Amino acid sequence: MSPIDQLISNFQELAAQVPGIVQPFIVMLAGAIPFVDGEGAAIIGIAGGLHPIVAGVAAAAGNFLCVLLVVAVTSRARTTIVDRRRSPVGVSGGAGARSSALGAYQETAATKPESKGRRRFNRWLVRFGVPGASILGPLAIPTQITSAILVGGGTPRRWVLLWQAISIVIWTTIGTVAAWATLTFVIEVS
């Protein structure tokens, strides 16, 4: 069993064992985990016995809160880096030390190949822009990583948050309805 499968299984067991009032918080926590996201957390909640609407809302809220945190941290880091690049070089650091460190970083970054998901995401970003990359991004990589890439690349935070929220609602709704329909019509659990 893969680590993600084990994590999902543990969340399902936990959600089934805690009192009903605590279950949505367990689902929110699961939604905040990359690769589980809102759709996986909604499935965990429904399998744990939550009403599908409560599971879907809790999963989407957890996923969005995590994306909000990632966007805030990434935006702050990007602003710090951009501001540092604009500031004049101090006497203690020296231009030579800074340029050689930058060259070493660029050399390391150039030798490391991009992952398959990152290449796919970049193609979608170029072809469909931020809305398309946000909505199609979860097919390749988690929403948290998608939002970090977009903000790190210079996309305005509000634009990323808007389209990530839309994406989370779409994908969590799809996951919730699919889990509910499967349990109701295929497995016939009432």
UniProtKB/TrEMBL annotation:
Domain of life per record: Bacteria
Keywords: Membrane, Transmembrane, Transmembrane helix
Protein name from the UniProt record: Small multidrug efflux protein
Transmembrane segments annotated in the record for this chain: 21-47, 53-75, 124-141, 161-187
